[in-house]
Amino acid sequence: MFKKLFGKKQDIVKTIELQAFVSGNIVPIENVPDPVFSNKLMGDGIAILPDEGRFVAPVDGEIIQVFPTKHAIGIKALNGAELLIHIGLETVSMNGEGFTSHVKEGEKVKSGDTLITVDLEKVEENAKSVVSPIIIMDPENMESITKPILSGKVLAGKEIILQATAK
């Protein structure tokens, strides 16, 4: 009886499903107007043209980095995948103006938790684009990365936009 209660191995998560991290329209990573992202130099992913300024955790995991300018955030998913959400393009020059972080490094998050809120109008006025990619920064550690939605509108925390299976 005790073996049944205490002898179980903890299940290791191998496949994660990333929910939309903001509401808006899907943009294939190859169409992001920045060659660092469109040429997948940082990794593979997908982008969203947001229609609101609330960015949420796409998966359960741990915050591994909140950039000082709050324009980007790193998350380590339960399967070990390292994710980067980059809010807008060339937004680092805004020095955090218009960005409010709701999490800090080392914090555990659940899918749907608010990470950062953004004044989208301010970003539209001061940055190259509001298109916001999410990147799997370590695709070499993934067996597969699939994109079930390639176009159309998505709601934050409601649709699966990426699936990643660790090796």
TrEMBL record:
Span of domain PTS EIIA type-1: 34-138
Subcellular location(s) of the protein: Cytoplasm
Keywords associated with the record: Kinase, Phosphotransferase system, Sugar transport, Transferase, Transport
Record-linked Pfam families: PTS_EIIA_1
Top-level taxon of the source organism: Bacteria
Main location group: cytoplasm
CC per GO annotation: cytoplasm
InterPro entries: Dup_hybrid_motif, PTS_EIIA_1_perm, PTS_EIIA_component
GO molecular function, one term: kinase activity
One GO biological process term: phosphoenolpyruvate-dependent sugar phosphotransferase system
Protein name as it appears in the record: PTS glucose transporter subunit IIA
Native source organism of the sequence: Lederbergia galactosidilytica
Upper taxonomic lineage: Bacteria, Bacillati, Bacillota, Bacilli, Bacillales
